[in-house]
Structure formats: structure tokens, C-alpha cells
């Protein structure tokens, strides 16, 4: 007699009951928005419970006061103002009050300043902050194709903390214990920067710092030899796509029609915005954040010694438009929506606690080279590439 049948039936029944009543087994209430033609699977699903928490976390703080743009300029009033010299005294003070709220609400001015000498650059946080001002100006001026009129302020990333909640670094852990242990090729662990998948865990360096092409799709059913991308590149691309989806709290169909992931003509417009976003993040990381490596103390770096870098989640923090697309720029037009001087000091000479003025050498601004990996806003738009083979 087949004794296993009654056992299998009772186990199956119990599992079915458990799936309906068991803790953690119930599906969250989901809100679904249709974004394309019916029958094409173009839907965005959102967990309603998470949306409530996100709404609370994404409220824009008001400016401390409306600044008066008239009066003497900061460069004439203070000793060591290198980037914000064009602001009026009131605008300058309003901006200092705001960045204190955005970056260091508890520590206050002393997070960046020696209170005995506000002009001194001896605290590394001030040197970093000055470069971050230049970076934020570049985001708002050069990368309108991504940030639009909404733009970004320090608050978009920092949200009241010295280090933003979401960043990435090179993650080689866990390393193989010895020669006999298998090389897992950087995958098959929980990839914290790959949307918690088991896909390759270190791809953001290739795609969001370096400029590795994001092209894996073949356009023919059978191989013709033109597409050289392998399964390895496909997995790496997928890991990046998981990072992007998780960062924005969306699924793949927000940017793709899944019947043809490669085809720009069938993709929603968000994909083009994302394309510019990828180039913007490369620019931020290669030209601003990475250059600050000699300034940051070791405890502000990842286990491989690289600085914490910007990913999509650094600004987006789980929502499709950071802070739901509410702009803060109107109160900081002169500080953050225009470019001040763009020259960069030689950060390798920085001595924390000692350096009084970290300034670019006098005539150096014209000759400073951009790193080779730099991508600029002039990069051409992806108008329906003829083929997406490599
Ligand atoms: C997040 C870092 C940061 C915080 C917090 C901060 N500052 Fe600053 N502060 C800077 C930077 C960077 C400069 C230089 C700006 C430039 O070079 O354009 C500066 C310059 C100044 C100067 C000009 C000093 C001189 O003579 O050159 C004054 C005054 C000043 N800050 C006051 C304040 C006050 C008051 C607070 C607190 C309300 C404050 N700052 C908080 C980063 C900060
Ligand atoms: C696009 C995101 C982004 C924006 C915008 C941004 N920051 Fe940052 N900032 C970062 C990241 C990421 C780090 C961490 C780098 C690290 O620790 O290696 C950082 C670090 C810093 C630090 C060093 C903190 C510490 O304790 O080590 C200061 C100070 C700072 N930012 C100030 C600012 C100011 C002021 C602005 C606005 C003018 C600003 N940032 C805008 C992403 C951003
Ligand atoms: C926020 C928008 C966005 C989301 C969400 C997104 N993608 Fe992408 N995807 C892009 C962009 C932009 C490119 C092209 C990047 C480039 O060319 O630099 C791309 C490229 C790709 C490619 C390569 C296409 C080719 O031509 O070879 C694949 C495959 C892909 N995505 C799959 C996915 C999958 C699977 C998901 C969900 C896990 C996803 N994407 C989520 C924006 C997105
Ligand atoms: C400096 C902050 C910042 C970073 C970093 C950033 N974004 Fe954005 N992103 C924005 C802002 C601001 C908007 C809203 C623009 C607007 O209102 O027009 C936006 C809008 C978008 C949109 C359009 C949403 C819609 O529904 O129209 C997509 C898609 C997007 N970002 C994808 C990305 C991806 C992918 C990355 C990482 C490669 C990224 N972003 C990194 C600031 C950022």
C-alpha cells in the first residue's frame, strides 16, 4: 500500500493552511499602477505599508529664513571663502545655518569649524564640505537632464547626517579562507549593493565609477558572433539593474518593456532619465568623491580603503523622485544653482589639524586635468541605437 499518500496529503494541507494564516506569510497590501498598454505587463507594484513610512521620511525641511541678496559680498567680508564668495552676507549666513541642519544638526557649526578660527581649514569636514558645494553646484548646473528643475541640495543625500544612509564601497567579503576554498567569483552571497540578490556584489565600481558599457542584449535569435557579452556581463548588468530598482523602489517595468529590455523605442521615458543619471553618478564619483580620498580619515573608508561613493539610493532613498520631486533650490539659487569657482586643490598635501588654508595653487584652475574616466554632460543621448550588440 502507498503509505506516503496520506502523509503527503496532510503535509500539503498543513502548508496550505499555514500559507494563509502563518505569520509573515501574508502578502502586503499592494497598490498597482498601470503604466503601459493593457496586456503588456507594464505595471508598477508598491507595498502600501512601506509607502506610509517613506512619506514621513521624505519631507523637505523649510529654509531657516529668507536671505537678503543685497549688501557686501562674502569674499570681501571673510578671510577664506573660496567658492561662495558671490553670496551676500545674509545669504552666506543663511547657507551656513542650512548646511548645519542638513549635515550636522547635533554637532552644529563645530562639525566643520574650529570655533576659535572659522577661516581655518584644519577640520577635514570643512575641506570635504567645500568640495561637496562644488559638486552640488555641478549636479544642478551640468546635470539638468537628470535632476531637472528639482535639483539637489546637501539634504537630498545627507538628511541630517554627516554620512548619508545609502552609499557603496568595494566589498570583497567574505574572502576565501584558503587556497582549497572555492573562488566564488564575487557572487553567491547577499549582494548588499545589488538589491540583496546573490548576483555579483561589486559591479557598481564598473558601472557607477568606471564606464563599462551596459549592453548585453542580442538582437537576433541565434548567435551571429557580433554580441561578445557573456553570461558574466549579463549577471553584472542585472546586479546593477537590481541596485537601480531597489534604490528607486520600483520594478524593471518602470524603465523597460520586458519583452525587449534593450529597445529604447519601447521603453518608458524614465529609462532616458536613468541613462543620464548613470552618467551623472559616474561624474560625481570620479571627479568629486574619489578625489577626496586623501582627505578622509581611514575610519570613513570601506574595508578596501576606498571612499564611500554615491549610488542611486544616495539621493533616491527608495522613492522614484527624491523627496517626491519637491525642490528646495528656490531658497538657495545663488549658493547651489549656480557655479562658483571650480578649481580643485591638491588634496594629497592636506594635513588634518594643521592645514590652515586648503586652496588651489594660484594659476592652476585652467590646467587641472579631468580624470580619464570622467564623463561629462555633453555625452550624447541614446537616441534609439541601431543595434544594441557591442
Ligand atoms: C558642513 C560643514 C559646515 C558647517 C556645519 C558650517 N560651516 Fe561655515 N564654512 C564651511 C565651508 C566649506 C566654508 C568655506 C566656504 C567657501 O570656501 O566658499 C565655511 C566658511 C565659514 C565662514 C567664513 C570664515 C572665513 O573668515 O573665511 C564663516 C563665518 C562660517 N563658515 C560660519 C559658520 C557658522 C556660524 C556655522 C554654524 C551655524 C557654520 N559655519 C557651519 C562649512 C561649514
Ligand atoms: C549626491 C550626494 C551628496 C550630496 C548632494 C552631498 N553630499 Fe556630502 N557626502 C556624500 C557622501 C556619499 C559622503 C561620504 C563620503 C565618505 O565618507 O567617504 C559625504 C560626506 C560629506 C562630509 C564628510 C562627513 C564626515 O563626517 O566624514 C561632509 C562634511 C559633507 N559631505 C558635506 C556636504 C555638504 C555641505 C553638501 C552640500 C553642499 C553635501 N555634502 C552634498 C554625498 C553627498
Ligand atoms: C530606473 C530605470 C531602470 C530600471 C528600474 C531598470 N533598468 Fe535596465 N536599463 C536602464 C538603462 C538606462 C539601461 C541602459 C544603460 C546604458 O546604456 O548605460 C538599462 C539596460 C538594461 C539591460 C541591457 C540592455 C542592452 O541593450 O543590452 C538589461 C538586460 C536590463 N536593463 C534589464 C533590467 C532588469 C532585469 C531590471 C529589473 C531588475 C531593470 N533593467 C531595471 C534603466 C533601468
Ligand atoms: C544627486 C541626486 C541623484 C542621484 C545620485 C540620482 N538621482 Fe535620479 N533623480 C534625481 C532628481 C532630483 C530627480 C527628479 C527630477 C525631476 O523632478 O525632474 C530624479 C529623477 C529620476 C528618474 C525619473 C523619475 C520619474 O518618474 O520621472 C529616474 C528614472 C531616476 N532619477 C533614476 C536614477 C538612477 C538609475 C540613478 C543612479 C544611476 C539616479 N537616479 C541617481 C536625483 C538623483
UniProtKB/TrEMBL annotation:
Signal peptide per UniProt: 1-23
Residues annotated to bind heme 3: 241, 252, 255-256
Binding site for heme 2: 132, 154, 157-158
Residues noted as binding heme 4 in the record, renumbered to the chain: 146, 312, 315-316
Family annotation (SUPFAM superfamilies): Multiheme cytochromes
One Gene Ontology term of the molecular function aspect: heme binding
Modification(s) after translation: Binds 4 heme groups per subunit.
Region feature (Disordered): 370-390
Function as written in the Swiss-Prot or TrEMBL entry: The reaction center of purple bacteria contains a tightly bound cytochrome molecule which re-reduces the photo oxidized primary electron donor.
NCBIfam families: photo_cyt_PufC
Protein name as it appears in the record: Photosynthetic reaction center cytochrome c subunit
Amino acid at each position: 500500500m502507498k503509505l506516503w499518500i496520506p502523509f503527503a496529503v496532510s503535509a500539503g494541507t498543513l502548508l496550505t493552511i499555514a500559507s494563509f494564516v502563518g505569520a509573515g506569510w501574508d502578502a502586503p497590501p499592494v497598490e498597482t499602477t498601470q503604466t503601459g498598454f493593457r496586456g503588456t505587463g507594464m505595471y508598477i507594484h508598491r507595498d502600501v505599508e512601506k509607502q506610509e513610512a517613506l512619506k514621513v521620511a521624505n519631507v523637505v525641511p523649510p529654509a531657516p529664513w529668507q536671505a537678503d541678496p543685497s549688501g557686501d559680498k562674502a569674499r570681501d567680508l571673510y578671510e577664506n571663502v573660496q567658492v561662495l564668495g558671490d553670496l551676500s552676507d545674509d545669504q552666506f549666513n543663511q547657507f551656513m545655518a542650512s548646511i548645519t541642519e542638513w549635515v550636522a544638526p547635533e554637532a552644529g557649526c563645530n562639525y566643520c569649524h574650529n570655533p576659535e578660527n572659522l577661516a581655518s581649514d584644519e577640520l577635514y569636514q570643512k575641506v570635504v564640505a567645500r568640495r561637496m558645494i562644488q559638486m552640488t553646484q555641478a549636479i544642478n548646473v551640468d546635470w539638468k537632464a537628470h535632476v531637472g528643475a528639482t535639483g539637489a541640495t546637501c539634504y537630498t543625500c545627507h538628511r541630517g547626517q554627516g554620512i548619508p544612509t545609502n552609499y557603496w564601497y568595494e566589498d570583497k567579503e567574505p574572502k576565501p579562507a584558503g587556497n582549497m576554498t572555492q573562488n566564488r567569483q564575487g557572487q553567491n552571497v547577499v549582494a548588499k549593493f545589488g538589491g540583496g540578490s546573490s548576483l555579483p556584489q561589486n559591479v557598481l565600481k564598473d558601472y557607477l565609477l568606471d564606464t563599462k558599457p551596459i549592453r548585453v542584449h542580442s538582437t537576433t535569435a541565434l548567435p551571429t558572433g557580433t554580441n561578445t557579452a557573456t553570461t558574466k556581463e549579463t549577471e553584472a548588468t542585472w546586479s546593477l539593474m537590481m541596485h537601480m530598482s531597489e534604490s528607486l523602489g520600483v520594478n524593471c517595468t518602470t524603465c523597460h518593456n520586458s519583452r525587449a529590455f534593450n529597445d529604447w523605442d519601447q521603453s518608458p521615458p524614465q529609462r532616458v532619465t536613468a541613462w543620464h543619471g548613470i552618467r551623472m553618478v559616474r561624474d560625481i564619483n570620479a571627479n568629486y568623491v574619489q578625489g577626496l580620498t586623501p582627505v578622509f580619515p581611514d575610519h570613513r573608508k570601506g574595508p578596501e580603503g576606498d571612499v564611500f561613493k554615491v549610488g542611486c539610493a544616495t539621493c533616491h532613498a527608495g522613492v522614484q523622485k527624491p523627496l517626491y520631486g519637491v525642490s528646495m533650490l528656490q531658497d538657495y539659487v545663488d549658493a547651489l544653482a549656480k557655479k562658483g569657482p571650480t578649481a580643485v586643490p591638491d588634496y594629497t598635501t592636506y594635513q588634518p589639524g594643521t592645514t590652515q588654508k586648503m586652496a588651489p595653487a594660484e594659476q592652476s584652475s585652467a590646467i587641472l586635468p579631468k580624470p580619464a574616466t570622467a564623463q561629462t554632460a555633453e555625452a550624447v543621448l541614446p537616441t534609439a541605437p541601431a543595434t544594441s550588440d557591442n
